[in-house]
Design a protein that fits this description.
The protein is mostly beta strands. It is built from two helices and 15 strands. The strands form four sheets. It has a four-stranded mixed beta sheet with strand order 3-1-6-7, with no helix packed on it. A four-stranded mixed beta sheet has the order 11-8-14-15, with no helix packed on it. Strand 4 and strand 5 form a beta hairpin. The termini are far apart. 27% of the residues are buried.
Length: 248
Amino acid sequence: MKKILYSVLSVLLLFLGSACEKDETTYRATANITVINTAAGLGAIRVNPGAGSGFAYAKATDLAYSASAVFGAYTGSNTITVVKSTDTTTKVFQRTIDLKPISTLYIAGTAAAVDTMFRVESNFPYINSSDINAESAMYIRFVNLSPNSGTVNVRISGATALEATALSYKGISEFKKYPAPIVVPPAPAFVTFEIRNAANTHTLASIPVTYSASRYKTASIIFRGLVNTAGTGSDPTFPLAAFQVTYN
C-alpha cells in the first residue's frame, strides 16, 4: 500500500512540476528588419539579424547592390551585424539595438565611405485590403540615398506640383497616399515619378509605379547611385536609378 501511495505522490509531484514549468514559459514578440543595400561599389552583403556569434555567414543569402530583403528577429535587444559577402570578416555595420516590430536599415554611401542609417518605423500606414470598403490606394515615400546628389525634388511626370521637396542625402519624405485605381485600357496602368536636381531641375532618374502591384501597399522609392560632376546626370561607373521597396 505504501509503494502505491509513493508512486501516486511521485506522479503528482511530477505533474505539478511540469505545470509550474509551463506557467513560466515566456513568449517573445517578433520583429521585421528591412535591409536596403545602396552603397556604391560595396557589392553584395550578408546580414545577421541578431542570431549571435554562432550565425553561419557561409550559408546566408547575398543581398545585392540596389536590392532589399526582410529579416526576422525578436523584439528587444539584438546585435545586428552586416558583413561583405566576399569577406565576412569585414563588418559593414554592427550595433546593439532595441528592436521594435518594424524597422529599416539603410546601407548607403560608397565602398570607400560606407554610411548607414537605422530607422524605427512608427505610425506605419496600413490599408486593410480585406475590407470591402478598402480604398484603391497606395502609400509612398521617397528616400535620397545618392551621396553626392545635393538636394532633389520629386514630381509626377507631366505635373507641376512637387511630391517631395529639397530632399538632401539620407533625407526621407513622409508617406503620402496616392490613388491606385483599377484601370481599363487604354487608361495608364501606372504613375511615373521623376527625381530632379533641385538646383537645375534636370531629371536624374524616374520610376514607373504600377497600380496593380502597389495597390493596398506601403512602399519607399529609393534613389541611389552617383551624380556626374555637372550635376545633370549619372556618374558612368555608378549610374543613378530609383527602385521600389514594398513593405506589405
